[in-house]
């Protein structure tokens, strides 16, 4: 429902084509549209979907894609969803400008909201700042050897979770929800986002290529700070820590298998699955506390279960 309306009402003009064609390209290469969809679903918990919610959902999706375009530039990523990234396809300048203008169009969508605009805009601005902070922390972690698990959870909360949480709360507020119900939905989204990222960490290491859509072990090969790595270092004995540190200093065909073996020996794999379950349960507990008929929340439960791939 959202995808049909979104794709048919993209706000970009035709010229200059060097600016707007890459925007249209990026928005048509795929994506689950999870954030705008949960905004609409949260809105629908409290009545019929409002026109304000459609504007909010569109603004959220434009903002999310702006962050992806600029993240790809910072990561020097050649592909996104199996397609060329904007900066790879159209050049660095186009990538920067495309992201910039997409973020401005996101705010232009929000400007159409009639109800609770100041409250919604304050929440959106706060979230946007936090997403930028999370991205900076993620980059900072690349050169740090002393990242703690608490810092990692904080980083993924900012980088991944708060936009999910914001999407839900915005939809709820625009649907007439009380502040209490809106905040419970925010906490639902925040915990869901953390669980989702931890599950992603686990699947990158232990998921099959078919399951995750990419070769497993990419995070290991790039020495990315993940929950598994940080927990493995925390739980390792002196001998295991030496071996793990050695693998972090080198590459090789055996690296992924060796590090996975250490994750299993230290119990980091089990700890990661347990963390996914804890944050998942916290999310569902918050959803349960939203004061609407339980049946109205069924679709959100189903979507959350799907995102978490809890059978993995």
CATH superfamily of the largest domain: Farnesyl Diphosphate Synthase
How many domains would you count in the coordinates?
Answer: 2
Question: Would you state the CATH class of the largest domain?
Answer: Mainly Alpha
Largest sheet: 2 strands, antiparallel
- What is the tally of beta strands? 2
Helix content: over 70%
| Lateral arrangement of strands in the main beta sheet | 1-2
Q: Which secondary-structure class do the elements indicate?
A: mainly alpha
The CATH architecture of the largest domain is Orthogonal Bundle
* Overall average residue pLDDT: 93
Shape type: globular
What are the secondary-structure elements, in order, as H or E? HHHHEEHHHHHHHHHHHH
Indicate the CATH topology of the largest domain: Farnesyl Diphosphate Synthase
Number of H- or I-type helical stretches:
16
Give the N-terminus to C-terminus distance in angstroms: 28 Å
- Beta content: under 5%
Name some characteristics of this structure.
2 strands; two-stranded antiparallel ribbon; 312 residues; 73% helix; globular; mainly alpha; Farnesyl Diphosphate Synthase; 1% strand
Structure write-up:
This protein is mainly α. It folds into two domains: about 1-30 and about 50-115, Farnesyl Diphosphate Synthase (Orthogonal Bundle), CATH 1.10.600.10; about 115-310, Orthogonal Bundle (Farnesyl Diphosphate Synthase), CATH 1.10.600.10. Helix content is about 75%, strand content about 0%. The chain is built from 16 helices and two strands. The protein has helices at about 1-10, 15-25, 35-45, 50-75, 85-90, 90-110, 115-140, 150-175, 180-205, 210, 220, 225-235, 240-250, 255-265, 270-290, 300-310, and strands at about 80, 85. A two-stranded antiparallel sheet has the order 1-2. Helix 4 runs antiparallel to helix 6 (about 90-110) and helix 12 (about 225-235) packs across helix 15. The two termini are about 30 Å apart. The mean pLDDT is about 95.
